[in-house]
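Continuing the batch. This is chain 6 of the set; chains 1 through 5 are on the previous pages. Same settings as before, nothing changed between runs. Recording input and output for traceability.
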Amino acid sequence: MQTTNVFDPVRGVTGIGSALASIRAWPPRRFWVAGAAAVLAAVLMGVPTGVLSTSFYTRMTPVTWWDYPVWAISAVLVGLTAATYVRVAGARPAGTDRSGRTMGATLLSTFAIGCPICNKLVVGLIGVSGALSYWAPLQPVLGVLSIALLLAGLTVRLRGAIACPLPAR
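Output for chain 6:
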């Protein structure tokens, strides 16, 4: 099925092809920022949750199979979103900064891949048995939700770059 790109005055340019075309048109600097931000996000999410094994933290429950894809996809989406904030030479800076929403979705990803009984907030609220009985089964849902939010945020940023490119001063 071929996706067509249509201009909608409310939503901007629609279609995944236009979003991918926007990323392909990025200058090399944006790709470097995307890679560095993705690695940084992976480390900042992976070390405190025990997905990345280090001597700083020992996870009390084993890492589940779905922790790795949620962790990797989230890190890549954070990196790509961070790269959308890099100014292109000659362009004016963007108006409103909504990076807090990306941080919220990243935090949700971190809660999704974390050890259920290592989360002091959850254990304090519902106890260890509650964390294993109620929180642990909810974590995959949080992972999918966080990826959907990160993807939506990236899509909005890319749509804005296509529909409303800022002219040079």
